[in-house]
Amino acid sequence: MTVSLLSIIIGGLGVCLAFLLFRPDPLARFDLPEGQLFPSAPNSSVVLDLVHKKISGAHSETMGLGLKQRLYSTRQSMDSFFDDVPVTSDISPVDAGGVDAEWVIAQGADSSRRLLYIHGGAFYVGSAKSHRVITSKLSEITRCAVLAINYRLMPEHPRMAGVEDCRSAYGWLVANGPRGPSEASTVFVAGDSAGGNLSLSLAAWLRDTAGRVPNAVVALSPITDARMRSPSIKRNLDKDIMLKPLAKGLGKIPRPLLVAGKWLFTGRSPIDPVVSPLHGDLSGLPPTLIQVSDSEILLDDGRRYVNKAVAAGSHAVLQCWQNMPHVWQIFYPQLPEAVSAFEQIESFCECYA
Hints:
Number of strands: 11
Radius of gyration: 20 Å
Shape: globular
Order of helices and strands: HEHHEEEHEHEEEHEHHHEHEH
Structural class: alpha/beta
Protein backbone atom coordinates (compact mmCIF):
# COMPACT_ATOMS: atom_id res chain seq x y z
CA MET A 1 0.00 0.00 0.00
CA THR A 2 2.78 2.40 0.94
CA VAL A 3 4.74 1.53 -2.19
CA SER A 4 1.67 2.05 -4.37
CA LEU A 5 0.94 5.41 -2.78
CA LEU A 6 4.55 6.49 -3.27
CA SER A 7 4.42 5.41 -6.92
CA ILE A 8 1.26 7.45 -7.44
CA ILE A 9 2.84 10.52 -5.85
CA ILE A 10 6.04 10.19 -7.92
CA GLY A 11 4.03 9.62 -11.07
CA GLY A 12 1.86 12.64 -10.36
CA LEU A 13 4.88 14.84 -9.77
CA GLY A 14 6.40 13.60 -13.01
CA VAL A 15 3.26 14.48 -14.96
CA CYS A 16 3.16 17.96 -13.40
CA LEU A 17 6.84 18.56 -14.18
CA ALA A 18 6.41 17.39 -17.77
CA PHE A 19 3.40 19.69 -18.17
CA LEU A 20 5.33 22.68 -16.86
CA LEU A 21 8.38 21.96 -19.01
CA PHE A 22 6.80 21.07 -22.33
CA ARG A 23 3.51 23.00 -22.51
CA PRO A 24 3.41 25.99 -24.89
CA ASP A 25 5.19 28.89 -23.26
CA PRO A 26 2.55 31.39 -22.06
CA LEU A 27 5.16 34.17 -22.19
CA ALA A 28 5.57 33.78 -25.96
CA ARG A 29 2.88 36.44 -26.41
CA PHE A 30 5.46 39.00 -25.23
CA ASP A 31 7.91 38.26 -28.07
CA LEU A 32 6.55 41.27 -30.00
CA PRO A 33 6.97 44.20 -30.56
CA GLU A 34 10.67 44.33 -31.33
CA GLY A 35 11.76 47.60 -29.70
CA GLN A 36 14.01 50.35 -31.05
CA LEU A 37 16.73 49.01 -33.39
CA PHE A 38 20.20 50.58 -33.71
CA PRO A 39 22.23 49.43 -36.75
CA SER A 40 25.92 48.58 -36.59
CA ALA A 41 28.29 51.45 -37.22
CA PRO A 42 30.02 51.24 -40.64
CA ASN A 43 33.49 51.39 -39.06
CA SER A 44 32.95 48.87 -36.27
CA SER A 45 33.78 45.61 -38.08
CA VAL A 46 37.55 45.83 -37.51
CA VAL A 47 37.13 46.66 -33.83
CA LEU A 48 34.51 43.93 -33.47
CA ASP A 49 36.96 41.36 -34.88
CA LEU A 50 39.50 42.37 -32.23
CA VAL A 51 36.84 42.12 -29.52
CA HIS A 52 35.88 38.62 -30.68
CA LYS A 53 39.53 37.52 -30.64
CA LYS A 54 39.99 38.87 -27.12
CA ILE A 55 36.88 37.07 -25.87
CA SER A 56 37.87 33.81 -27.61
CA GLY A 57 41.34 34.04 -26.10
CA ALA A 58 39.92 34.44 -22.61
CA HIS A 59 37.67 31.40 -23.09
CA SER A 60 40.53 29.25 -24.43
CA GLU A 61 42.66 29.94 -21.34
CA THR A 62 40.23 27.97 -19.15
CA MET A 63 39.78 24.99 -21.48
CA GLY A 64 40.83 21.68 -19.97
CA LEU A 65 40.89 22.97 -16.39
CA GLY A 66 39.02 21.35 -13.52
CA LEU A 67 35.92 23.08 -12.20
CA LYS A 68 37.66 24.72 -9.24
CA GLN A 69 40.65 25.82 -11.31
CA ARG A 70 38.38 27.08 -14.08
CA LEU A 71 36.37 29.16 -11.61
CA TYR A 72 39.51 30.73 -10.14
CA SER A 73 41.05 31.34 -13.58
CA THR A 74 37.86 32.89 -14.96
CA ARG A 75 37.58 35.26 -12.02
CA GLN A 76 41.20 36.31 -12.37
CA SER A 77 40.86 36.78 -16.13
CA MET A 78 37.68 38.83 -15.81
CA ASP A 79 39.19 41.12 -13.16
CA SER A 80 42.20 41.90 -15.37
CA PHE A 81 40.43 41.85 -18.75
CA PHE A 82 40.30 45.66 -19.06
CA ASP A 83 43.48 46.62 -17.23
CA ASP A 84 44.73 48.28 -20.43
CA VAL A 85 41.73 50.65 -20.58
CA PRO A 86 42.35 53.89 -18.66
CA VAL A 87 39.76 54.81 -16.01
CA THR A 88 39.72 58.50 -15.11
CA SER A 89 37.27 58.38 -12.19
CA ASP A 90 38.39 58.36 -8.57
CA ILE A 91 38.06 54.90 -6.99
CA SER A 92 37.82 54.34 -3.24
CA PRO A 93 36.84 51.20 -1.28
CA VAL A 94 33.91 51.39 1.14
CA ASP A 95 31.87 49.16 3.43
CA ALA A 96 28.31 49.69 2.19
CA GLY A 97 26.33 48.50 5.18
CA GLY A 98 28.25 45.26 5.42
CA VAL A 99 28.67 44.81 1.66
CA ASP A 100 32.13 45.19 0.14
CA ALA A 101 32.01 47.96 -2.46
CA GLU A 102 33.79 50.88 -4.06
CA TRP A 103 32.85 54.44 -4.92
CA VAL A 104 33.50 55.38 -8.54
CA ILE A 105 33.34 59.16 -8.94
CA ALA A 106 33.98 61.04 -12.18
CA GLN A 107 35.02 64.67 -12.23
CA GLY A 108 31.97 66.89 -11.83
CA ALA A 109 29.79 64.24 -10.19
CA ASP A 110 27.30 65.39 -7.56
CA SER A 111 27.59 63.30 -4.38
CA SER A 112 23.86 63.67 -3.71
CA ARG A 113 23.13 61.95 -7.03
CA ARG A 114 23.87 58.25 -6.61
CA LEU A 115 23.80 55.11 -8.69
CA LEU A 116 24.02 51.52 -7.46
CA TYR A 117 25.82 49.34 -10.00
CA ILE A 118 25.47 45.55 -9.88
CA HIS A 119 28.02 43.70 -12.02
CA GLY A 120 27.38 40.70 -14.22
CA GLY A 121 29.17 37.36 -14.41
CA ALA A 122 26.51 34.62 -14.23
CA PHE A 123 26.35 35.03 -10.42
CA TYR A 124 29.71 33.30 -9.93
CA VAL A 125 32.34 35.63 -11.43
CA GLY A 126 32.85 39.37 -11.87
CA SER A 127 33.51 42.22 -9.46
CA ALA A 128 33.41 45.98 -9.07
CA LYS A 129 36.95 46.01 -10.52
CA SER A 130 36.06 44.04 -13.64
CA HIS A 131 33.35 46.56 -14.56
CA ARG A 132 35.14 49.87 -13.95
CA VAL A 133 34.92 50.78 -17.64
CA ILE A 134 31.13 50.83 -17.27
CA THR A 135 30.91 52.35 -13.80
CA SER A 136 33.33 55.15 -14.61
CA LYS A 137 31.41 56.08 -17.74
CA LEU A 138 28.09 55.93 -15.88
CA SER A 139 29.42 58.30 -13.23
CA GLU A 140 30.49 60.69 -15.98
CA ILE A 141 27.25 60.72 -17.99
CA THR A 142 24.79 60.66 -15.06
CA ARG A 143 26.88 62.96 -12.83
CA CYS A 144 26.34 60.41 -10.06
CA ALA A 145 28.59 58.95 -7.43
CA VAL A 146 28.47 55.27 -8.43
CA LEU A 147 28.50 52.59 -5.74
CA ALA A 148 29.78 49.38 -7.36
CA ILE A 149 29.26 46.39 -5.08
CA ASN A 150 30.95 43.04 -4.68
CA TYR A 151 27.90 40.98 -3.79
CA ARG A 152 28.50 37.44 -2.56
CA LEU A 153 28.98 34.97 -5.39
CA MET A 154 27.98 31.38 -5.99
CA PRO A 155 28.97 28.62 -5.35
CA GLU A 156 30.61 29.73 -2.10
CA HIS A 157 27.38 31.46 -1.13
CA PRO A 158 23.71 30.70 -1.86
CA ARG A 159 21.92 32.57 -4.65
CA MET A 160 19.87 34.61 -2.16
CA ALA A 161 23.04 36.00 -0.54
CA GLY A 162 23.61 38.16 -3.63
CA VAL A 163 19.99 39.32 -3.56
CA GLU A 164 20.29 40.29 0.10
CA ASP A 165 23.55 42.18 -0.54
CA CYS A 166 21.90 44.27 -3.26
CA ARG A 167 19.03 45.16 -0.95
CA SER A 168 21.37 46.08 1.90
CA ALA A 169 23.68 48.14 -0.30
CA TYR A 170 20.78 50.04 -1.85
CA GLY A 171 19.41 51.00 1.55
CA TRP A 172 22.85 52.15 2.62
CA LEU A 173 23.32 54.14 -0.61
CA VAL A 174 20.10 56.07 -0.11
CA ALA A 175 21.30 57.29 3.31
CA ASN A 176 25.07 57.55 2.71
CA GLY A 177 27.24 59.30 0.16
CA PRO A 178 30.98 59.44 -0.47
CA ARG A 179 31.36 62.08 2.25
CA GLY A 180 29.33 60.28 4.91
CA PRO A 181 25.68 60.07 5.96
CA SER A 182 23.37 62.21 3.79
CA GLU A 183 20.10 61.65 1.98
CA ALA A 184 20.36 61.07 -1.77
CA SER A 185 18.56 63.54 -4.02
CA THR A 186 18.48 61.15 -6.98
CA VAL A 187 19.00 57.38 -7.09
CA PHE A 188 19.49 55.11 -10.07
CA VAL A 189 20.06 51.35 -10.22
CA ALA A 190 21.93 49.71 -13.08
CA GLY A 191 23.46 46.32 -13.84
CA ASP A 192 24.46 43.98 -16.63
CA SER A 193 23.56 40.35 -17.32
CA ALA A 194 23.30 38.70 -13.87
CA GLY A 195 23.54 42.21 -12.42
CA GLY A 196 20.64 43.24 -14.65
CA ASN A 197 18.64 40.39 -13.15
CA LEU A 198 19.48 41.58 -9.64
CA SER A 199 18.64 45.18 -10.56
CA LEU A 200 15.17 44.26 -11.84
CA SER A 201 14.56 42.00 -8.85
CA LEU A 202 15.58 44.82 -6.51
CA ALA A 203 13.22 47.31 -8.16
CA ALA A 204 10.24 44.98 -7.70
CA TRP A 205 11.18 44.32 -4.07
CA LEU A 206 11.41 48.05 -3.32
CA ARG A 207 7.98 48.61 -4.85
CA ASP A 208 6.48 45.79 -2.80
CA THR A 209 8.09 46.83 0.48
CA ALA A 210 7.29 50.54 0.11
CA GLY A 211 10.99 51.34 0.03
CA ARG A 212 12.37 54.31 -1.85
CA VAL A 213 11.97 53.29 -5.48
CA PRO A 214 14.85 54.42 -7.73
CA ASN A 215 14.26 57.25 -10.19
CA ALA A 216 15.06 54.82 -13.01
CA VAL A 217 16.61 51.42 -13.69
CA VAL A 218 19.02 50.51 -16.51
CA ALA A 219 19.61 46.84 -17.33
CA LEU A 220 22.18 45.77 -19.92
CA SER A 221 21.46 42.36 -21.48
CA PRO A 222 19.68 41.13 -18.33
CA ILE A 223 18.78 37.58 -17.42
CA THR A 224 15.06 37.72 -16.66
CA ASP A 225 13.93 34.08 -16.90
CA ALA A 226 15.75 31.28 -15.05
CA ARG A 227 13.84 28.67 -17.06
CA MET A 228 16.09 29.44 -20.07
CA ARG A 229 13.14 29.10 -22.46
CA SER A 230 13.50 32.31 -24.46
CA PRO A 231 13.56 31.52 -28.21
CA SER A 232 16.78 33.51 -28.73
CA ILE A 233 18.72 31.07 -26.55
CA LYS A 234 18.62 28.52 -29.36
CA ARG A 235 18.36 30.95 -32.24
CA ASN A 236 21.44 32.99 -31.29
CA LEU A 237 23.55 30.27 -29.67
CA ASP A 238 26.20 30.20 -32.39
CA LYS A 239 26.28 34.01 -32.68
CA ASP A 240 26.80 34.77 -28.99
CA ILE A 241 30.57 34.51 -28.62
CA MET A 242 30.47 35.65 -24.99
CA LEU A 243 27.89 33.20 -23.59
CA LYS A 244 28.14 30.35 -26.11
CA PRO A 245 30.52 28.17 -24.03
CA LEU A 246 28.29 28.35 -20.95
CA ALA A 247 25.03 27.96 -22.86
CA LYS A 248 26.28 24.98 -24.89
CA GLY A 249 27.35 23.21 -21.73
CA LEU A 250 23.96 23.73 -20.12
CA GLY A 251 22.24 22.75 -23.36
CA LYS A 252 23.67 19.22 -23.10
CA ILE A 253 21.77 18.65 -19.86
CA PRO A 254 18.21 17.28 -20.29
CA ARG A 255 15.73 20.06 -19.49
CA PRO A 256 14.02 18.24 -16.57
CA LEU A 257 17.41 17.70 -14.91
CA LEU A 258 18.47 21.28 -15.63
CA VAL A 259 15.32 22.73 -14.06
CA ALA A 260 15.55 20.40 -11.07
CA GLY A 261 19.24 21.24 -10.63
CA LYS A 262 18.55 24.98 -10.74
CA TRP A 263 15.81 24.57 -8.17
CA LEU A 264 18.02 22.58 -5.82
CA PHE A 265 21.11 24.75 -6.32
CA THR A 266 19.40 28.13 -5.88
CA GLY A 267 16.74 27.08 -3.40
CA ARG A 268 14.16 28.85 -5.56
CA SER A 269 11.73 27.79 -8.25
CA PRO A 270 12.79 28.95 -11.74
CA ILE A 271 9.53 30.92 -11.91
CA ASP A 272 10.03 32.66 -8.56
CA PRO A 273 10.08 36.41 -9.42
CA VAL A 274 13.00 36.95 -7.03
CA VAL A 275 15.29 34.99 -9.40
CA SER A 276 13.16 35.38 -12.55
CA PRO A 277 11.85 38.97 -12.63
CA LEU A 278 9.93 38.24 -15.85
CA HIS A 279 7.52 36.04 -13.90
CA GLY A 280 6.53 38.70 -11.38
CA ASP A 281 4.01 41.52 -11.33
CA LEU A 282 5.54 44.18 -13.57
CA SER A 283 3.10 46.97 -12.79
CA GLY A 284 4.05 50.09 -10.84
CA LEU A 285 7.77 49.80 -11.57
CA PRO A 286 10.20 52.71 -11.97
CA PRO A 287 11.08 53.80 -15.53
CA THR A 288 13.25 51.05 -16.99
CA LEU A 289 15.65 50.99 -19.92
CA ILE A 290 16.87 47.65 -21.26
CA GLN A 291 19.58 47.41 -23.90
CA VAL A 292 20.22 44.15 -25.77
CA SER A 293 21.96 42.85 -28.88
CA ASP A 294 20.07 41.05 -31.63
CA SER A 295 22.92 38.49 -31.68
CA GLU A 296 22.89 37.39 -28.05
CA ILE A 297 21.02 34.54 -26.41
CA LEU A 298 19.42 36.87 -23.85
CA LEU A 299 17.73 39.04 -26.49
CA ASP A 300 14.28 37.67 -25.76
CA ASP A 301 14.80 37.77 -21.99
CA GLY A 302 14.98 41.55 -22.33
CA ARG A 303 12.29 41.83 -24.99
CA ARG A 304 9.74 39.79 -23.07
CA TYR A 305 10.39 41.73 -19.87
CA VAL A 306 9.85 45.11 -21.54
CA ASN A 307 6.75 44.03 -23.43
CA LYS A 308 5.19 42.51 -20.31
CA ALA A 309 6.05 45.59 -18.23
CA VAL A 310 4.49 47.90 -20.82
CA ALA A 311 1.36 45.72 -20.93
CA ALA A 312 1.16 46.06 -17.13
CA GLY A 313 1.28 49.86 -17.37
CA SER A 314 4.92 50.47 -16.44
CA HIS A 315 7.21 52.69 -18.49
CA ALA A 316 9.84 50.42 -20.04
CA VAL A 317 11.99 50.88 -23.14
CA LEU A 318 13.81 48.25 -25.20
CA GLN A 319 16.81 49.28 -27.31
CA CYS A 320 18.44 46.69 -29.55
CA TRP A 321 21.82 46.95 -31.33
CA GLN A 322 22.79 44.81 -34.29
CA ASN A 323 25.65 42.29 -34.26
CA MET A 324 27.02 43.17 -30.83
CA PRO A 325 28.46 40.79 -28.22
CA HIS A 326 26.77 40.34 -24.88
CA VAL A 327 27.23 43.52 -22.76
CA TRP A 328 29.12 45.30 -25.54
CA GLN A 329 28.98 48.53 -23.52
CA ILE A 330 31.99 47.29 -21.57
CA PHE A 331 34.10 47.69 -24.73
CA TYR A 332 33.83 51.47 -24.53
CA PRO A 333 35.38 53.49 -26.09
CA GLN A 334 36.69 51.11 -28.78
CA LEU A 335 33.26 50.11 -30.09
CA PRO A 336 31.22 52.93 -31.65
CA GLU A 337 28.07 51.08 -30.57
CA ALA A 338 29.19 51.30 -26.94
CA VAL A 339 29.49 55.07 -27.37
CA SER A 340 25.96 55.31 -28.77
CA ALA A 341 24.60 53.02 -26.04
CA PHE A 342 25.95 55.31 -23.32
CA GLU A 343 24.47 58.31 -25.14
CA GLN A 344 21.06 56.67 -24.91
CA ILE A 345 21.56 55.86 -21.22
CA GLU A 346 22.52 59.47 -20.54
CA SER A 347 19.37 60.79 -22.24
CA PHE A 348 17.13 58.28 -20.46
CA CYS A 349 18.50 58.96 -16.98
CA GLU A 350 18.43 62.72 -17.42
CA CYS A 351 14.67 62.51 -18.04
CA TYR A 352 14.18 61.08 -14.53
CA ALA A 353 16.91 62.79 -12.50
